[in-house]
């Protein structure tokens, strides 16, 4: 029979054990080994059955066991030590508190998903794991962050396989009362809520839940409340589900509702109001509109409010392909705003203008969430050096006339939260070498360029550690594979072969990620005979562990999974290649440390960053990857391998995949496997161990989320906070009026004449020429603009590369036609073909970038002809 109502019955802990509840409700346990060990000791079997979730564990422990622990003085001493440690962690000063320079009082960090722990399944892949690691690192560093997301009642799907290898999805119902969450409550004890207006006089209400991620509160909005109609209750049903309107409502709730939730939280707790709002991908972009509406209520018009909001907003893009961005029909967005929807005080056309693709190559009837994010954020970044470059090219249409490298999108390369992803055995090895506290500091705060102490660890210890981790992975794989085959309908009698799957002494390769086509799950199957030879080599075999989920609506991705699974089912190779369903954080924490090589073979440059290889590297696993994402930035042959790419325009897709697969097989056969199996005089693979050592020494400090968050603080949050403070209401009005005046007058800005002191088109290195430029400013004054000389090497078509920009100075008042003369030096500091041009840009002390307005004036072809090209 089915229950008509469900309750969560909480255990009553003896008074001596009350601190267990405090420890369970703070998700710091997910990266604090001593706290997890304490919970495991409560009841090891139930701890395993709970999936390592303290809240579920405490809900299942019998009362007599709790009474026994309440009288166990040794356990109570450990409990007191863990509780004191957490309280010190929460209250003490950390890295952030030691910094100077006007850092923000608080930062609000919005993301559609957060991967904190498997016990709170609110993530689908890299974006969510990155967001979770961002919160954890911010906590470790003492950054006053407030996380904001949605609480999905079904989370992301659980994956299993049919007998013929087809992906099947399951959506377990999550009860928030059984998760490590507490409801945010008003002063009268009622549950705190936010509300959004919907067309037709309806409303969308959401309860605010709070997860405590160390020092960082994470606010999650849940629309499954009784006051909502059935349709509205389902808005937060599942991550990345539903059609366009469903996704739009999710993103309105995340952005608009999220700002309201932050205001509610700060009002109820006294937490400082955020000075900086960080939009992690475009899904939360509507947060800027809500903040403009707040300022409108305080007397600022739309344009001034927009300037004030932009000043304190940081936008991070994670996708290198337009298809990865949420885009909505103009009419759908228009219907949900204005007099009959949300933000009725704001003209709908102004809202639409922020997101419409009104630029060359855009779809003018589509509302683009990333475009809105860029227009609402004064500072923007990609997530690796290469991805920053790709993003500047992808969004260059928003800044017409500027070279792609001047588009104001920088990059902060992602990092991973080492205490979450480093195996306890690796941590203990570091602690034996330099002490537990120094190891913890190195993994959280970071700050050094190299971990030189790794050089002193004996080869034997490194090799024994690697074998131990590989052995643990073999055990984990066999356990999961057995469970998977039972789900697929196999009987126990059929599964004896699983006891022989994988070998703890064989070179082990890992490949695990989401399964969109560009990540090329099945590239390894391109030449099956050759792959089989590698798997079954008599002296140097390899074994491969594969995992990954295809999006529920992506049948192409599901076919790739099925193709891989069917190959892995072949009795000839199933002991050497396995596919594990239901890839998630719990699996990943065993997989990364246990592999010797982490394989990544996306289509370059479609991998924005690719943090799984970073997590593997922190455990001494070597990377074998296409030069994409972070690997393009930090690869060195001392600690890994680069798969060559065949990305010339003349190469079709099939030919490209054939060439790159062949290169992969060659690397495995001729370089990777021989290096692993080759033994030195002491019977150890000396050269392999040295590569492990180099990985830890050089990559370890770079791939830390602590390094990443410190970069965000120093390069983006601190400048955004300064801009936010500078944009007082009067300053915001003045800036908005100045921008309107400049835009209105810009069509009259011209470069009328350019001349230099050069008499020929050749000159000697080190020569300095005088440059004289006549510009028309129309109704603008010299204070409104900057006139620049732009010079550098030129290609065959006279395009300037590695440009250097030098401001020129006005030399007197305007002539009778209102034109101004600007002069300055032009240094010929490079040999070879060299050229220059001049340009006029808007200039204002409150602009974050010269390209901010997307306006510039350059010489006409006739004007340029008269000036000549130098050093051709």
Automatic annotation (TrEMBL):
State the reactions this protein catalyses: [(1->4)-alpha-D-glucosyl](n) + phosphate = [(1->4)-alpha-D-glucosyl](n-1) + alpha-D-glucose 1-phosphate
Q: Which cofactor does it need?
A: pyridoxal 5'-phosphate
**Where in this protein does the record say N6-(pyridoxal phosphate)lysine is found?**
615
A GO biological process of this protein is: carbohydrate metabolic process
Q: Write one Pfam family the protein is assigned to.
A: DUF3417
Q: Which SUPFAM superfamilies match?
A: UDP-Glycosyltransferase/glycogen phosphorylase
Q: Which top-level enzyme class is recorded in the Swiss-Prot or TrEMBL entry?
A: transferase
Keywords assigned by UniProt?
Allosteric enzyme, Carbohydrate metabolism, Glycosyltransferase, Pyridoxal phosphate, Transferase
Residues annotated as domain DUF3417: 13-120
MF annotations from Gene Ontology:
glycogen phosphorylase activity; pyridoxal phosphate binding
Q: What is its EC number?
A: 2.4.1.1
**Function per UniProt:** Phosphorylase is an important allosteric enzyme in carbohydrate metabolism. Enzymes from different sources differ in their regulatory mechanisms and in their natural substrates. However, all known phosphorylases share catalytic and structural properties.
Fetch the NCBIfam families from UniProt.
more_P_ylases (TIGR02094)
Q: Which family does it belong to?
A: Belongs to the glycogen phosphorylase family.
- UniProt protein name: glycogen phosphorylase
Q: What is the lineage of its organism?
A: Bacteria, Bacillati, Actinomycetota, Actinomycetes, Kitasatosporales
């Amino acid at each position: 029979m089915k229950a008509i109502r469900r309750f969560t019955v909480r255990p009553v802990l003896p008074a001596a054990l009350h601190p267990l509840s405090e420890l369970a409700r703070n998700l710091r346990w997910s990266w604090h080994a001593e706290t997890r060990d304490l919970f495991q000791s409560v009841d090891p079997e139930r701890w395993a059955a709970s999936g390592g979730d303290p809240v579920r564990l405490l809900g299942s422990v019998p009362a007599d066991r709790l009474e026994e622990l309440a009288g166990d003085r040794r356990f109570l001493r450990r409990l007191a030590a863990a509780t004191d440690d957490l309280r010190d962690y929460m209250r003490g000063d950390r890295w952030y508190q030691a910094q100077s320079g006007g850092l923000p009082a608080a930062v609000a960090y919005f993301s559609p998903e957060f991967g904190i722990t498997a016990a709170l399944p609110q993530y689908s892949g890299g974006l969510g794991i990155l967001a979770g690691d961002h919160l954890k690192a911010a906590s470790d560093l003492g950054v006053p962050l407030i996380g904001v997301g949605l609480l999905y009642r079904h989370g992301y799907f659980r994956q299993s396989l049919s007998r013929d290898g087809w992906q099947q999805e399951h959506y377990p119902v999550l009860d928030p009362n059984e998760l490590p969450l507490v409801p945010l409550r008003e002063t009268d004890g009622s549950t705190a809520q936010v509300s959004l207006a919907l067309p037709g006089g309806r409303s969308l209400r959401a309860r605010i839940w709070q997860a405590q991620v160390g020092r960082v509160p994470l606010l999650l909005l849940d629309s499954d409340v009784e006051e909502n109609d059935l349709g509205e209750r389902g808005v937060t049903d599942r991550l990345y589900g539903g059609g366009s309107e469903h996704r739009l409502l999710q993103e309105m709730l995340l952005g608009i509702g999220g700002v309201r939730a932050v205001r509610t939280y700060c009002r109820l707790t006294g937490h400082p109001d955020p000075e900086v709002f960080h939009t992690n991908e475009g899904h939360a972009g509507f947060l800027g509109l809500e903040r403009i509406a707040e300022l409108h209520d305080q007397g600022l018009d739309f344009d001034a409010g927009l300037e004030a909001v932009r000043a304190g907003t940081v936008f991070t893009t994670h996708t290198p392909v337009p298809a990865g961005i949420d885009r909505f029909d103009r009419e759908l967005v228009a219907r949900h705003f204005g007099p009959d929807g949300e933000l009725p005080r704001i003209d709908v056309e102004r809202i639409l203008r922020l997101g419409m693709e009104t630029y060359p190559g855009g779809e003018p009837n589509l509302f683009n969430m990333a475009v809105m994010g860029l227009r609402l954020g004064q500072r923007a970044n990609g997530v690796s050096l290469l991805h920053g470059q790709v993003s500047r090219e992808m969004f260059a249409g928003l800044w017409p006339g500027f070279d792609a490298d001047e588009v104001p999108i920088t990059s902060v390369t992602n990092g991973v939260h080492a205490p979450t992803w480093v195996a306890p055995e690796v941590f203990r090895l570091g602690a034996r070498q330099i002490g537990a506290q120094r190891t913890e500091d190195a993994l959280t705060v970071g700050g050094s360029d190299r971990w030189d102490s790794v050089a002193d660890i004996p080869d034997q210890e490194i090799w024994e550690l690697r074998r131990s981790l590989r052995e643990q992975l073999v055990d984990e794989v066999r356990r999961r594979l057995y469970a998977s085959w039972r789900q697929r309908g196999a009987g126990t009698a059929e599964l004896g072969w699983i006891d022989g799957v994988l070998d703890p002494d064989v070179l082990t390769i890992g490949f695990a990620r989401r399964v969109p086509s560009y990540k090329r799950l099945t590239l390894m199957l391109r030449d099956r005979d050759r792959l089989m030879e590698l798997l079954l080599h008599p002296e140097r075999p390899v074994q491969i562990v594969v995992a990954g989920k295809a999006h529920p609506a992506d049948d192409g991705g599901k076919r790739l999974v099925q193709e891989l699974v069917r190959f892995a089912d072949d009795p000839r190779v199933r002991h050497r290649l396995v596919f594990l369903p239901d890839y998630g954080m719990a699996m990943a924490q065993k997989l990364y440390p246990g592999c010797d090589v982490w394989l990544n073979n996306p289509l370059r440059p479609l991998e924005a960053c690719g943090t799984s290889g970073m997590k593997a590297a922190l455990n001494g696993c070597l990377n074998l990857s296409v030069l994409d994402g972070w690997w393009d930035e930090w690869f060195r042959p001392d600690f890994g391998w680069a798969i060559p790419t065949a990305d010339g325009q003349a190469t079709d897709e099939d030919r490209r995949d054939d060439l790159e697969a062949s290169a992969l097989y060659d690397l495995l056969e001729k370089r990777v496997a021989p290096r692993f199996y080759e033994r030195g005089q002491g019977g150890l693979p000396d050269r392999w161990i040295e590569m492990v050592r180099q990985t830890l020494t050089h990559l370890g400090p770079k791939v830390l989320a602590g390094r990443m968050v410190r970069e965000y603080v120093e390069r983006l949050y601190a400048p955004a906070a300064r801009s936010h403070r500078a944009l007082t209401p009067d300053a915001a009005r003045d800036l908005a009026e100045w921008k309107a005046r400049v835009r209105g007058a810009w069509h009259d800005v011209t470069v009328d004449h350019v001349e230099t002191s050069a008499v020929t088109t050749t000159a000697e290195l080190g020569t300095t020429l005088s440059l004289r430029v006549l510009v028309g400013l129309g109704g603008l004054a010299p204070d409104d603009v900057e006139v620049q000389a732009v010079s550098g090497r030129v290609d065959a078509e006279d395009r300037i590369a590695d440009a250097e920009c030098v401001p020129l100075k006005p030399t007197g008042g305007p002539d009778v036609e209102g034109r101004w003369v600007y002069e300055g030096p032009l240094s010929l500091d490079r040999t070879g073909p060299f050229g220059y041009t001049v340009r006029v840009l808007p200039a204002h002390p409150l602009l974050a970038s010269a390209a901010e307005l997307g306006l510039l004036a350059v010489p006409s072809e006739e004007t340029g002809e008269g000036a000549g090209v130098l050093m051709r």
